[in-house]
Design goal:
- About 80% of the residues lie in helices and about 0% in strands.
- It contains 4 helices and no strands.
- Helix 2 crosses helix 4 (about 75-110).
Length: about 110
């Protein structure tokens, strides 16, 4: 919240809008950072040959798959995947937090 409040122009927004902007910024960051883990899990869940590998070999196979996929498919695929992940997770979590905050405020007013 403090980082978002330091951005130019944010001080002109109401407290509620600053909170939503902060929630959205945090959700975008979380979506971006969790992308490789989500992709690795999805790939691993559909790759039965990993069952016969040690945990260290599984981890190496996942890293090789991630690097190979984005090296082969290019930055456009990475940008698309990050954009899609931000689109559904950031808006979902920001919206959830907005509704939660509103309901908590309403409960205090009651």
């Amino acid at each position: 919240y403090e980082v978002v409040c330091r951005l130019p122009g944010i001080s002109t927004l109401s407290e509620g809008k600053r909170l939503v902007a902060s929630d959205f910024a945090c959700s975008v960051l979380a979506a971006t950072l969790s992308l490789p883990f989500n992709h690795a899990f999805s790939w691993a869940a559909c790759t039965p040959e990993l069952e016969r590998m040690s945990y260290a070999r599984r981890g190496m196979a996942m890293v090789q798959w991630l690097i190979g996929t984005y090296r082969e498919q290019g930055v456009r695929l990475l940008a698309r995947d990050v954009g899609l992940r931000i689109n559904y997770t950031a808006f979902l979590f920001t919206g959830y937090r907005f509704v939660e905050r509103t309901l908590v405020d309403l409960s205090h007013d009651a």
